[in-house]
């Protein structure tokens, strides 16, 4: 029932929109994904309920590490094979003979065997942390249950008006969409519908089970799993139900999930034996990790918005292209910089592309609570940005 509820608001629709018209052959079907994955996961849990079938905790933690390492090896091997095929002119045969997929097949077989146990281990560890944060009902009953699925994430196409940075449409597309095809879709939306468009990647998706990328580090995986669980949790409260009511509410949701997801993910990482001091800088918010890139990106957005407000659409687009070249020369791998790029990434209040005050406001709001759980639950009843500002004002008054 939970899976169906989560699919209904954003599931497959027959209404033809610009992005659906242009990218129809690449659309990712959430309904089909649920049919393929949902019952398989619960089948695994039923099998593990048989006495003696469930691994011990130490064994499960070792399985998570082995699974994530295998996923990274498989991704690397796929890239190597793709490179060999490209050098062979698109043929599966190279100078030395047929390009072998044997090692990749072995890795994928191992990955498939480890995946259900790795998922269950992460679910169990994150659930334990959530219970310590007060999310349990009648003891140890957690709702919604933590239920994740490791695998390839769909890509996403986002459109924006050209005369204003404003998100119009989001559409999930198949994973691993070729860069050439991404560019073709974006160009077609520009030519046919006069829209700015970007096709980007995802790290997680709050369907149910939540979909989590499995080629990141364990700490990143746990942060993503916690972030996506929070979206599912808030779906049953006014805060999450108001996600689509306004850009401000979407930014509030994403920023709060970012902050709380990092904290819950890191707590789970420590519980699983992780060391937060290892590669610590890598896990800082990007604003702290790379102040130069942050400054460049925010300057770019502010100037682009000024030009657009003056009706200088062509000038704004040319300016963004110039800044994109400057960033590329500086070593920043931004594939494309346009109105849709800012509309897609600006929804995250802590993003380097955001010029919204919401990032700082949510960060301040967090300081008024002793625990992550208290912070999350304090937002449950918020259904508008105005209500959030009122609540923030009350906290400021009480802290004086």
Give an overview of the whole structure:
With 400 residues, the chain is mostly helical. The chain is built from 16 helices and 10 strands. The strands form 4 sheets. It has a 3-stranded mixed β-sheet with strand order 5-10-9. Helix 7 (218-234) crosses helix 9 (247-271) and helix 11 (291-309) runs antiparallel to helix 12.
Strand content: 5-15%
User: Major beta sheet, specifics?
Assistant: 3 strands, mixed
Provide the structure class.
mainly alpha
Q: In angstroms, what is the radius of gyration?
A: 22 Å
| Helix and strand run | HHHHEEHEEEEEHEEEHHHHHHHHHH
Which overall shape is indicated by the principal axes computed on the Cα atoms? globular
Question: What order do the strands of the largest sheet run in, or round the barrel if closed?
Answer: 5-10-9
Q: Give the proportion of residues in helices.
A: 55-70%
> End-to-end distance, in Å?
46 Å
Number of helices: 16
- DSSP strand count: 10
Mean pLDDT across all residues, rounded? 88
**Uncertain regions: pLDDT < 50 for 5+ in a row?**
7-13
Features of the shown structure:
400 residues; mainly alpha; three-stranded mixed beta sheet; three-stranded antiparallel beta sheet; 16 helices; 10 strands; 8% strand; globular
């Amino acid at each position: 029932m939970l899976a169906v509820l989560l699919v209904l608001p954003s599931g497959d629709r027959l209404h033809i929109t610009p992005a659906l018209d242009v990218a129809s052959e690449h659309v990712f079907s959430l309904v089909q994904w649920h049919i393929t994955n949902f019952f398989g996961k619960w089948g695994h849990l039923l099998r593990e309920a048989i006495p003696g079938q469930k691994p011990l905790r130490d064994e499960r933690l070792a399985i998570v590490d082995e699974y994530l390492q295998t996923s990274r090896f498989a991704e690397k091997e796929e890239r190597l094979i793709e490179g060999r095929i490209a050098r062979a002119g698109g043929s599966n045969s190279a100078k030395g003979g047929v390009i072998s997929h044997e090692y990749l097949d072995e890795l994928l077989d191992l990955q498939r065997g480890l995946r259900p146990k790795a998922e269950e281990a992460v679910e169990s560890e994150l659930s334990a942390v959530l219970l310590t944060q007060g999310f349990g009902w009648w003891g140890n009953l957690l709702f919604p249950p933590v239920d994740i699925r490791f695998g390839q994430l769909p890509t996403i196409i986002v459109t924006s008006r050209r005369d204003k940075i404003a998100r119009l449409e989001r559409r999930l597309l198949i994973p691993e969409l070729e860069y050439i095809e991404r560019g073709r879709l974006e160009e077609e939306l520009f030519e046919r519908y006069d829209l700015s468009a970007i096709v980007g990647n995802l790290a997680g998706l709050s369907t149910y089970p939540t979909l989590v990328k499995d080629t990141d580090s364990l700490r990143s995986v746990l942060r993503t799993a916690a972030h996506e669980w929070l979206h599912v949790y808030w779906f049953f409260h006014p805060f999450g139900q108001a996600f689509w009511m306004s850009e401000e509410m979407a930014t509030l949701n994403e920023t709060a999930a970012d902050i709380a997801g990092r904290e819950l993910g890191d707590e789970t990482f420590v519980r699983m034996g992780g060391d937060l001091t290892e590669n610590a800088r890598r896990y800082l918010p990007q604003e702290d990790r790379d102040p130069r890139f942050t400054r460049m990106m925010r300057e770019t957005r502010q100037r682009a918005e000024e030009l657009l407000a003056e009706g200088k659409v062509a000038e704004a687009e040319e300016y963004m292209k110039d800044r994109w070249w400057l960033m590329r020369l500086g070593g920043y791998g931004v594939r494309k910089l346009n109105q849709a790029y800012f509309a897609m990434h600006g929804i995250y209040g802590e993003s380097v592309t955001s010029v919204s005050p919401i990032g700082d406001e949510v960060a301040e709001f967090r300081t008024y609570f002793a625990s992550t759980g208290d912070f999350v639950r304090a937002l449950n009843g918020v259904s508008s940005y105005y209500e959030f500002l009122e609540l923030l004002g009350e906290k400021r008054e009480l802290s004086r």
